[in-house]
Structure formats: structure tokens, C-alpha cells
Amino acid sequence: MRSGIVKSMTVMTTVAMLAVGLAGCGGGSSASSSDKGRVYFLNHKSEVADQYHQLAKDFTKKTGIKVDIVTAATNTLDQTTQSELAKKDAPTILSIGMDNFPKFKKYLLPIQDTDVYKLLDKNGKEYSMKDGNDSFTFPFAAEYYGIIYNKKIINEYGTKPYAVVKSVDEIKDYATLKKVITSIQEHKDDLGLQGAVTTPSVDASDEHRFVSHMSRIPLFYEYQDSNTTFKPELKGTYLKNYKDLFDLEVASSPSNPKTASNKTYDDCVAEFSQGQVAFFPEGVWAYPLIRNNKVADEDMGMLPYWMGIPGEEKMGPASVYDASWAINKKTSKANQEASLKFIKWMVTSEEGKETLSHKMSFSVPFSAFNDKYQPNNVLTLSARAYEKQGKPLVRSFNLPSTQWGDNLANALLEYTQGTKDWDNVEHSYIDGWQKDWKQVKQTTGALPTATKLH
Question: How many Å apart are CA 132 and CA 446, to the nearest integer?
């Protein structure tokens, strides 16, 4: 989640960005008057770019307000945002996440007094990114991540004489999960599998699973020990648990550790979606990429991101309200109003609600999204079910920088390939954390506000 938690299977991983102007497109008004302002939306979710374009087209047709959309390629949001903000006609709506909020906060309009902010539900308002009394972002997707599983494979495994569980329902903690993964890997040929877990490639397209998702699990529990939501220095208390799970994935995947980085995120998705492995550590956003392949909806579920940390069995998967819209305060008042009008239309109109919830599969934290407008995403339903069982979701907290993530990914790659040891990973995580937050403070003049977690 370096610049937004979702990464996708797309040819845009090889290009800088895709820009599509929508004025006058498909019946839209090409003569929208300047006093109406214009909307220029910098999107970072390439897997739903087509749906955004259709919404923009419909909005232009209804209002006469011109809408342009640019979609940043995977792993380029920070660079693209910086580049686009330097232009005369800069984006009016920015895609902001926890990790790039400190960097771009100076460009953002406080939005707590807007009509759109008032439409956020309780969680949406709570997770709007703040500085003091000001709120700056509209979260538009509550997302969840953990360990996705193929129920059919595990239940078939459960019929074997060597099985350590009879069904996935018996996997209730990391100790059991580890035994199941190890056993499936040992008997993969008999089960017709290539491995137990998807390849941890740590390729540039796949590294987010380990530096943006998995890294936040030990962070949450260290924060929980200190009852805080932020620390500029870490002890790395639970990195040994991270290592245990990472080692398990490396040893139980279809790939040789020394060449695992040759696989891309697309390859890892394919391993799971084609039924070649039983487990896939990832988030609900992967559902559109998995479905309609060889894993039926009824066979998909999500386990929490267990790694042997005391008390983790009482928690559910991890949650994140990272994907957010923000308004550029440096654009004209007319453009700001047009942009707010576009966002309001997306979260209140039938077209917008239907598209965001059902076509994009977002769980949207705005009050207009009742039970009718929840995503048809079995992984979201699986993750949310833990809350109904009384198990709180693990919270996701800010990471310091893209550079911190890149350095951690490089250290993991070197560890996987056997060229450096685990101490180098811990150094990147702990020392890099302190160094990069210090740099953030020097650059922005502020750090995330530390409040009590409980």
C-alpha cells in the first residue's frame, strides 16, 4: 500500500500513465462554460479505470462539467502526482493514501465543512486523514487483507490419511495453519498442486504484499503493546513472527527461492486463480482477478494474517481505509466546487452507487451505501464476518515513505536469494523507519498524530 493498497493485473505496469479526456465524449458537452469549473481526476486504481471513465462521461452529460481522468501506472502514483501538480492545469481531485498524505498535505483542501464530508459514515469520518482539527480526505473504499484460501483444495486435502485437519473450519490459529501449509507442500504431488502458497516473488509488481500489507501486522501489535497509533521509533518486537511466516511462504511455494523474483504479481494471482495452490496472502481487491477462473466463489474465503503473535487468534483480518479522494486547494474555486460536485454525484446518484459498489466492488464508507449497495465480493463478506463474530479487525497504520518500502523489498529479495541474512531485513525495517520518519518531519514539519489506540 505504498501509494494505495491496490495493485492490479494490467499492461499499465509498463507505462507511465493513461490519460483520457472525456469532454464531448458520447454526447457529453464539449462547451462546458468556464464558470462551471472543470474536473481533472488523478486516479490510481487502474483495474477500475474504465468504470471511472463511464461515470465521468455520464456526469459530463448531465451537468456539462468537463471531466478528465489520468490513471497512474502501478508503483508510480507519487511520481505522477508530483509531476502533474507541477503543471499549469494540475489535477483537481487527487488520490491520496496514508503513505503519501504527509508528502502532499500542503496541496490539500480542508474538507470537514463540505457537504460531501457530512455524507461520510462514522468510519469514513474517523479514517479521513487529519492534521489537528482539519480533515483532508474522503475515504471511498474500506478494504481488507489477510490470507485468502481455496476451501475446495483444503477440504479435499482433509480427506487424506496424512491430513492434519478435516476442513478449513479447523484452522483457527497460526500453529494449525503452519502445519496445514507444511503438510500440503509435502504432499503437493498427490494433491495435484504446484505448492501450498503463492510465490512470494517480491518482484516490483508483487512487493506490496510484503512491504505494504504483511509489514503492517507486526506494526499493529507493537503499537497495541504501547497503546498508541504512532511511534517514530520501533523495537521490531514481532519481526521474528514476520520472518516465520515469510520463511513458510518461501518454503511452500511453487518457485525456487533464488529465481522467485522472476515471477510477477500476475503470475502469483494465476497460481491461485488456476487452482495450483491453496493459499494466497492478499486483499479483497484481488477478487475481480481471481473470479471466473478455476476457483468458485463458494470456495473462496479469508483467514486473518496470522504469524504466531500472542493474542492474534482473537482478531480478524486487517482493515484499511486508505484509498481516498482529496481536493487540490491550489486549483480555482470553480474547479474545487466542480470536483466536490462530481464526488457528491458519485456517492449519491444511482449510477454512482451501483458502479462503486457492484462494478468496482468497493465497500464505500458513505451513509448512502446501505445493504443494497455493498460489493458482490465474497472476500469482503468473508473478512467482514469476523466482526460479526466479535473479532476486531487489525488496523493499518501509516508507513513512512515509498523509499522505506523499496528498501525493505530489496532486503527481502536479498534474503530470499540467500545473498544477505535476516538482520539486514530487520535493519531496513527498524532503522529505516526511524530515518525516514525523521526525513518526513524535516520535509513536512510534522509527523502523524499519536493518540491512544484503545
Answer: 11
Question: Domain range spanning residue 212?
Answer: 143-320+376-454
Report d(CA 166, CA 160) in Å as an integer. Answer: 8
Residue type, 168: V
Overall number of domains in the chain = 2
Do 9 and 41 contact (CB within 8 A), yes or no? no
Question: Are 166 and 126 in a shared domain?
Answer: no
Name the grid cell of 119.
455524507
**For the segment 392-403, what is each residue's pLDDT rounded down to a tens digit?**
999 999 899 889
* Residue 67 DSSP one-character state: E
Nearest to 243 by CA among 251, 253, 235: 251
In terms of C-beta density within 10 A (0-12 exposed, 13-18 middle, 19 or more buried), how is residue 358 classed? middle
Contacts of 239 (CB under 8 A, 6+ apart): 218, 425, 426, 429, 430
pTM attached to this predicted model: 0.79
Query: 140-163: per-residue pLDDT in tens?
Result: 999 899 999 999 999 999 999 999
Q: Give the separation between CA 228 and CA 424, rounded to whole angstroms.
A: 27
Beta carbons of 438 and 232 less than 8 angstroms apart = yes
